[in-house]
Hints:
Helix content is 47%, strand content 13%.
Amino acid sequence: MKSRILVVDDDAEMAAMLRESMTRLGHELDAVTSGVDALRALQGARYDAVVTDLRMPELDGIQLCVRIASNFPAVPVVVMTAFGSMDAAVAAIRAGAADFLAKPFKPSALAVVLERVLARRRLEEEVRQLRRRLEEVRPISELVGESQVMRDLVGVVAQVAATDASVLVTGETGTGKELVARAIHARGPRAARPFVGLNCAAVPEALMESELFGHARGAFTDARAARAGLLQQADGGTVFLDEVGDMPLPLQAKLLRVLQERTVRPVGADKEVTFDVRVVAATHQDLERAIDAGNFRRDLYYRLNVIHLDVPPLRARGNDVLLLAEHLVRQFARQHGKAVSGFSAEVAARLLAYDWPGNVRELGNCLERAVALTGHERLIVEDLPPKLRTYEAPPLTSQGCEDLTALVSLDEVERRHVLRVLHAVGGNKARAARILGLDRKTLYRRLELYGIAPEPAPPEDEGTPDGAGPPATS
Length: 474
């Protein structure tokens, strides 16, 4: 397998011999004459292994091993030592070297050592990939839901994941936008590579450029060593820009250029570095409105919004709240070592009745509290936070439906769900139709059957039973 090797040696004859040997073995070779130059080369390109001399001015082989092990742990180092210098060989291994060669050595010995360290590197990379896959596949199972809107979302995620297009994920706070981003990454061809996230609302403006693009040593007061930015760290994988609507305007312009050119210049560096990432961005803001207000660049919006996914709020997902609740109760029971296996029908009724303004995050918060404090095998109403214990939803219809466990027809279930979605989106029929997977004419016909005016008419909508508040069931 062809590999790229970096040789560090100030002896021109030795460098020439190594170049000839490695070329014959089918490897690519770059050569530098000092440890300092080696660190610069590693910062700017990807190498499969380093072969270095032990005695060099300014930064010797032992010190170089320490620096590489600290900053580039996936790159194995082979140290060349003088014949009989076993103490030096042991010191190199302790400093992080993967193997050593005693000078003088034959090309065949070099071939054996290189094959050994490269095979070990490939094995370690396979283990890392398997671990990443386990970590990244896990969140897919957390896209819990059987509602049509969630089935549609999961279906689109599967389609989008197979492409390399940029994705903009929108939705209210707490709906699970990061889970969607992770699912896209985990199902795509980049799944074995890193998933690296940045919350643009949580990082101070002064530090965000360094976080995203990296910095050179000495670029600012605390920059004691060079550091790769998130775009370089995610090379080959996915960068997740959470709350991208909060990114400062000056940085938006720099990010746009970087994404167009696919090269980045770390802060304080004098050359650019290439990278290859997929970009998934997320926001709870209306970016088109932010563009009109002058707070977001239109060209960056089009760069990020190649494919748009809207994550529905929990109140628009019907009985999914119960599926999520069962999933979360099991999860928190394992986490806190509690023998809790579910919840009572009265708890289910409260969960269905509440409108969940904080979405899945609020549901998780409430259930973790309940599981941690309960003394029962199944959660009861008294285990819930006060706001859920005392919450009462207005009746679903003018006739009422006091028995929340009553069995109803499929037509009635459908009617309630349509009205719930319409209420959740503030009466916006176009958006409701999109969430329900219907064309607008079909939605209008169903609303006529339910006795609701088909054309936008707030007084009539507000006068419908659903307009009074969230339904008691879905």
